[in-house]
Amino acid sequence: MRRVLTVSLASALAALSMAAFAGDAEAQSQQRRQDPSGRGENADGSQANERERAPRFAPLRRRANAGPCPYVKILYDAARYVELTGDRVNAQNVGFTGEIEGLTSDCAYQSDDPITVQTRVLFNLGRGPLAQGDQRTYRYWIAVTERNKAVLAKEYFDLPVTFDGARTTMVTQDQTIVIPRAEATTSGDNFEILVGFDVTPEMAAFNTSGSRFRVNAGTTAPAAAPAQPPAQ
User: Fold this and answer.
1) I need a labelling partner for 132 at 20 to 30 A (CA). Which of 12, 17, 71, 102 fits?
2) How does pLDDT run across 118-151, given as a tens digit for each residue?
3) Are 104 and 144 in contact (CB under 8 A)?
4) Which residues are within 8 A (CB) of 42 and not within 5 positions of it... i.e. 6 or more apart?
């Protein structure tokens, strides 16, 4: 179900009264732009596959606007969802998993109209060895911020998933964000839109460390059939 996240006018006006941007946050943004895949090291310390993968979902239609669109990003600390049990980081201790694998967006605004942003998010979801059942409702959020500064609005969304016996599945979600503008000269690049899973502090720390499991963590290929003795 599509829902609309609307930023209050008061929040938008308060944000625009502060013109300076934090340099360290900009440096972090630059680092994320250099590594848009959000992939670090595997849980065993080995390098994850850095090969760029082609988008698996349709991009949104581009439209002409009065100015640039807001920056739309996946928050690195909340880009993955990994349920771990026990006191060891081990693939056999993994429950349900998830990864925000793709994000595309477009916006529209003219004159002094609000900025309407359309987002499309691609989720790659999985069931590990300790996942209970065939269904899971994940939760994710979308936040609108003054660029690199205060959060203006944040809304949570439920993502019910049925695996139908499979170990992994992919789901696409479209959402709409409406951002009012103080005046016609206010452009979209004053704002930033962040997307992430609703994760626990432990999950966030696991993501921040650069460790990761793929969505099919803990699954193994079927054992090969035993060799048949030669015919007598």
Assistant:
1) 102
2) 999 999 999 999 999 999 999 999 999 988 788 9
3) no
4) 48, 211, 212, 213
